[in-house]
Amino acid sequence: MPKVGMPDIRKPQLVHATMSVIDRVGLHGASVALISKEAGVSTGIINHYFGGKQGLLQETMREVLRQLSHTVKSRLSQLPKNEHHQRINAIIDGNFVGYQAENKVAKTWLAFWSHSIHDPQLKRLQRVNEKRLLSHLKTELKALFDSEQAEIVAHGIAALIDGIWLRGTLNPGGIDASKARLIINDYLDNQLNQYSKNN
């Protein structure tokens, strides 16, 4: 029986080990044996805490999503409610800097992203993430556009975030947060200029 308090140590340890193994051998090669060896624990611990590999993979994706949500909320909390452009940039930055830009985290994201097409639980988590991103964006954009246009621009920014992130993850040089911000702000400025001309 695991000691009291051990889950708080073991669970994060196993999540980080999962990311390290996925970084090295990919999602399909990330076996329970490799992950437990990386974490320095027995394979039975994974079954005990997560019910097997699938449960561990889901918890790993949840952790990545928690970190992303925390980063975005933390950045937004530091900005005034009426600084909508700055707040949009805080949302953009949250997707490209810090934890999300770490190589093993980015590779884990990419592995889960592709795997979620065929995995209902991972797909559900991916949809939660997508809805959260669009919700954050629409909250700020509705102060700059009418509701219909805010919806369109939110989807445009989300598509740019995904596309730039994907290219950066596949690029040996990694993700360039400054370039991402520049590209997305250019799109946003063009949308604002076009909107102001028509209204």
UniProtKB/TrEMBL annotation:
HAMAP family xref list: HTH_type_BetI
GO BP terms, alphabetized: glycine betaine biosynthetic process from choline; negative regulation of DNA-templated transcription
Name under which the protein is recorded: HTH-type transcriptional regulator BetI
A Pfam cross-reference name: TetR_C_6
Organism phylogeny: Bacteria, Pseudomonadati, Pseudomonadota, Gammaproteobacteria, Vibrionales
Presence of keyword Repeat: no
Keyword Transcription regulation: yes
Database matches in InterPro entries: BetI_C, DNA-bd_HTH_TetR-type_CS, Homeodomain-like_sf, HTH_TetR, Tet_transcr_reg_TetR-rel_C_sf, Tscrpt_rep_BetI
GO MF term set: DNA binding; DNA-binding transcription factor activity
Domain HTH tetR-type span(s) in chain numbering: 8-68
